[in-house]
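Same chain as my last thread, 185 residues:
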Amino acid sequence: MNKSMLVGAILGAVGVTAGGAVATYKLVGSGPEYAEVLAVQPVNETIQTPREVCNDVAVTRQRPVKDQHQIAGTVIGAVAGGLLGNQVGGGTGKKIATVAGAVGGGYAGNKVQEHMQASDTYTTTETRCKTVTDTSEQLVGYDVKYQIDGKVSQVRMDHDPGSRIPLTDEGQLVLTQQQPAGIQQ
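reply #2:
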């Protein structure tokens, strides 16, 4: 074998070996391109929204009383009772019956007027409002458990990443969702 052929063969073998070493270094030294997703849990937030609800309701009210002490009823009852008592008996008994009739009639007239005033009502319609709270759930993100080179970690993301999360060249997670070409947000 001649010397130049031997040198060429050695140089070729060294080049192939060096190329293989560089390729192996890039393959082994660069690390994984993706993190493996182990679990995805949606995170919801309870939203409470107050709102006002109004209804028309019938309200019954008592009319204002003009004679609070029922004097008219008492007087009319006393006169009527006295007249009736005066019709009974004679002499001193007639006077006692008249006084008793006046007292009883006054009391009865007072109670009759009191009852009539209490039942003197009117009905109106009023709007009554109250605040009610509507409750709803809103999705705020996803808690994602992932694994890189056997190390398990967790991160909150704004989207469901699927079965894997891409990594940067430095081995960091790419957490933002990439839009396909032509789609605007």
